[in-house]
Write a structure and sequence with these properties.
The chain is mainly alpha-helical and 116 residues long. It has two domains: 1-53; 68-106. Helix content is 60%, strand content 0%. It is built from six helices and no strands. The protein is elongated, with a radius of gyration of 19 Å. The model has no long low-confidence stretch (mean pLDDT 85).
């Protein structure tokens, strides 16, 4: 299955139609239809990224991302892990030690999400 086919399938799964998705994304309908028919390779990179983010798809292989995580968060996590695995054991231990220290400092703690 091509990336365009995967994209179209996901658009139709999450939205009523390609037209509705185009309106939601503020993309000309004809541009989106053409890209889905001929391939997305000619589309602007930023547009593809925005569409993948909206549909929770990985822009590299168009696999599904976790529904509760944004694309930006997934890419950041991936970047952190890529750098972590480049470290030797001493470097990894030091990073974990620093993270333990930082989570103890209030100004660096993530704000808790409110639940209903």
């Amino acid at each position: 299955m091509t990336k365009a086919e995967i994209l179209k399938k996901e658009i139709l799964r999450q939205y009523r139609s390609v037209r509705q998705f185009a309106m939601e994304m503020n993309i000309p309908y004809s541009t989106l239809v053409t890209a889905l028919e001929r391939g997305i390779e000619g589309m602007a990179y930023g547009t593809v990224i925005k569409m993948c983010d909206k549909l929770s798809l990985n822009p590299v292989d168009f696999s599904s991302l976790e529904r509760d995580a944004s694309l930006g968060a997934q890419l950041l996590e991936n970047r952190v892990m890529q750098n972590y695995v480049k470290l030797n054991q001493t470097g990894r231990d030091k990073i974990l030690e620093l993270m333990d220290d930082f989570v103890q400092i209030d100004k660096y703690k993530a704000k808790a999400k409110k639940t209903k």
